[in-house]
Design goal:
alpha+beta; single chain; 4-stranded antiparallel β-sheet; two-stranded antiparallel ribbon; Alpha-Beta Plaits
């Protein structure tokens, strides 16, 4: 089991979610976050150039069985890219091992609980 965490542009959320659903990945958690990396946006405020410290993004958390890791990652990559080549700020994907998953309602554990 793996936990896939993706940080994407807010404007791409619907497109990514629909693509995941088409690939039978329907259980996701969405969190609004702010951060910065290589992407910067400049604004002119009262004649001064201002670079804000944090840019709004969306964080997706998706717990999957090992068989669904590649499908999930490829779906996110293909639907979250700004264009064919991508752009700075399109986001990142992190894959971490998940030791255990427990469904609270039934007490099921492991892959069945996902």
């Amino acid at each position: 089991m793996k936990l896939i965490t993706a940080i994407i542009r807010e404007t791409k959320l619907d497109e990514v979610r629909e693509a995941l659903i088409e690939n039978e990945i329907t259980r996701i958690t969405v969190i609004r976050v702010s951060g910065h990396g290589q992407q910067t946006r400049e604004h002119i405020y009262r004649g001064k150039r201002i670079v804000p410290g944090l840019i709004p993004k969306v964080k997706l958390e998706i717990a999957v069985n090992d068989d669904f890791v590649d499908i999930t990652v490829n779906t996110i990559i293909n639907s979250a890219r700004t264009n064919e080549n991508g752009e700075v700020g399109d986001g990142k994907i992190f894959i971490t091992p998940m030791e255990e998953c427990i469904r609270i309602r039934t007490g099921e554990r492991g892959g069945k609980a996902i």
